[in-house]
Specification:
The longest helix is centred in the middle third of the chain and has 21 residues. The chain is globular and about 50 Å long. By secondary structure, it is mostly helical. 56% of the residues lie in helices and 2% in strands.
Amino acid sequence: MKDDRLEISLDYMKFTIEADGEVLSDELSEAFRGIIEDGGSADKAIASYIRSEALSGNSYSGEDEMSVYPGTRCLVNYFGIKDKPQLRRIDKRISSFRTAELLRKPLDMPFSFEHLVAIHSHLFGDIYPSAGMIRTSASKKHREYCQPDYIIPSAEKLFDNLRSSHYLRGITDTDDFINELAYYMGEVEALHPFLDGNGRVTRLFFNLLSLSAGYVIGWGSADPDHFLEANVAALDGDYQALIDVLEEIVIPLAAE
């Protein structure tokens, strides 16, 4: 991978780690660099991490994969973890190795809803049996998200429009690209099709889509808090805050 693509990818990983309230250590940065630049094995990195945490991958015994363990807020997982902070820590680290893997070698498929689902499955398939499954229960955090019965039909319409727009390729005016990008990012955020991990999956999907369309999202210059606030505003149909954020960090790839 060329140096500029490597730095773009490392900036993305840094933003992802910091968005979760952590600091990217030199050791973890080198691990990401090894996967992205040198083709290191994410499988090996994950296996080593699992050993370091003394986790057992044989704890899933057929519970409803779309549920949480009784008396906890922990989604059923392959390690049987029932402590939320521990699960969140394990989830973030394993999914980050899979993220680095996709930055090195993106999935070879159109930027469809199926692509979004495949990213979710790839990032979280080591942790949750529900990876890649569409949620069947209502979800609400900053705002109420799309109701389960409407996820598939809404996704079909939205991604049909994205396909008709040639996945935003061929847009030479940066402002026009940003306006379109903000709209689709906000709509997918509102769709919120998975039980967990929606933000990370949506962000990676549009990072890869932007690169494919000839634009760089400069995550190294992005403020995670401002980005989150802009995404929340977009849930109410107000895309201006997200447009403002993207205007500061999106540039044509050729200028990179």
